[in-house]
Amino acid sequence: MGGMLKKQEGGREVKMCEYIDMLEARGEARGKEKGKEIGKEIGENMLAALLIRLYVLGREGDVKLALENKDARKELYQEFTIAGKYQGPGA
């Protein structure tokens, strides 16, 4: 083997460095998927917090604005100091 470790995969030999690259790519794909899930959860929590505050204050017009206009929503997040925070497992 000339010092290079090998592993069987699908009937062909794969050099260990290729195998490590495949494992790394698989891990990156899992990490990206988990990151998307976490980002979605954070966004939903932020929007819910904003809508609750606007509803309690009777600001129905701003509720509609927040749902329709991304820039206005960002300004309202700042006004109410609503920041994205992950609150799931491991947080």
What this model shows, in words?
The protein has three helices and two strands, in the order ββααα. By secondary structure, the protein is mainly α. It has helices at about 15-55, 60-70, 70-80; strands at about 5-10, 10-15. It is rod-shaped and about 65 Å long. Helix 1 (about 15-55) packs antiparallel against helix 2 and helix 2 (about 60-70) crosses helix 3.
Order of helices and strands: EEHHH
Main β-sheet description: 2 strands, antiparallel
Mean pLDDT: 85
The span between the termini is 45 Å
How many strand units? 2
Tally the helices: 3
Low-confidence sequence ranges: none
Beta percentage is: 5-15%
**Relative helix content:** 55-70%
Shape: rod-shaped
What is the SS-derived class? mainly alpha
Rg is 23 Å
Provide a concise account of the structure shown.
The protein is mainly alpha-helical and 91 residues long. It is 66% helix and 9% strand.
List keywords for this structure.
91 residues, mainly alpha, two-stranded antiparallel ribbon, 66% helix
